[in-house]
Amino acid sequence: MKMKKILTEWRRFIIKEAVEKSNFEKIIEDAWQKQDRPYNEELAYVKAALHAARYMNGSGTTNEEAYLNRVEFGKTATERIQELNRNASLFADYFDALETYTPPLDKRFKDTKEKKFKGIGLVPTWAKANLNRSHYTGVFAKGNTLEEAYRELFAKFEKLDQMLEAGNYDFLAEFGREVGKTNMDIRHSGGAYSSGLLITPSKATDEEQKEMMEDYLYYMKHSNDPDIKVAIEAEHKLQNAIQIALRLWKKYGGFEDGADEQANKGAYLRMKQALFKSKDTVKKLLKSPDLYDPTGDEEQTVDSPVQDEFEAAMTTTDRAEAERIMNVLKNAGDKRWREIRVRTRSM
């Protein structure tokens, strides 16, 4: 009965609108239908994400105007693409951001070399798992630093948003130009991307964040532990901390104002990316324990004289005290000051 209902839904949408749809849209719908999934609003968002990535590469389809202005489940494709840009948690549901290095680096392992950051790759989440690579495109943003690459990435999406607002569908011409000309002040303050890993909504209570902070502090202490079992446990703690932070964003429904959205959307994506990376690290620790060499990591060790200060800053409810410690770590060249900066923003 369920299958009959699904087929009925598909017949209602596809037969009625088949003449309006491009081959690209049909490829997405065919792959979706092969999974016995109903023609629903989630599909509409998947299509919006895939089209957005295609447009930001300067490519189009055969019927931009018809697709972008067609109403499905109460919204046009234009509105959905703009919603993906403006709602950070929704954005992270339909895109994965991958940090690209040459070569990849984790100094805890003997087989790694010096890294060189290249940029950020943005890939539609559903497409990565369900479509042939030749059927979709990702978006790449170069940068000398992570912050610079994320700013470039969001500038691309903001440019697309503004083009759709103006009814300009000449993606090839527009995305061949400098993205820096985009007016980022239309909705966003242009605030710097937050480079701290964990970030939570200002509405989240201390009690809701308690387990997250305990697990994250455990990870900070033990990620380089000589005992590989402890290092694996630290990775699991990190994964749990990130998952708690992501759940809090789901619970409180995203960012409240433009400045927060622009500054924190990258942090939300970084948490997702860090979660994937941590899971891969655990696999490597289990598969190749002989490559594990924590003495090769140049990051600050547990015995550092500022370790206790860092813990105090991450647990105190006194913002002034947290900022004092943040400045101490910053002046000492300890990159963990960035983690404290993120926390102070929600205090």
Quick gist of this model?
The protein is 58% helix and 7% strand. It is mainly α and 347 residues long. Strand 1 and strand 2 form a beta hairpin.
**Overall body shape:** globular
Count of helical regions: 15
Order of H and E elements: HHHHEEHHEEHEHHHHHHHH
Share of residues in helices = 55-70%
- Name the structural class: mainly alpha
Arithmetic mean pLDDT: 77
Q: How much of the residues is beta strand, in percent?
A: 5-15%
With strands numbered from the N-terminus, the spatial order across the biggest sheet is 3-4-5
Radius of gyration: 22 Å
| Number of strand segments | 5
Low-confidence stretches: 177-195, 297-307
Report how far the terminal alpha carbons are from each other.
Answer: 52 Å
If you had to describe this structure to a student in words, what would you say it looks like?
This protein has 347 residues and is mostly helical. The protein has a domain of 139 residues. Helix content is 58%, strand content 7%. It contains 15 helices and 5 strands. The strands form 2 sheets. The chain has a 3-stranded antiparallel β-sheet. The chain is globular. About 9% of the residues have low confidence.
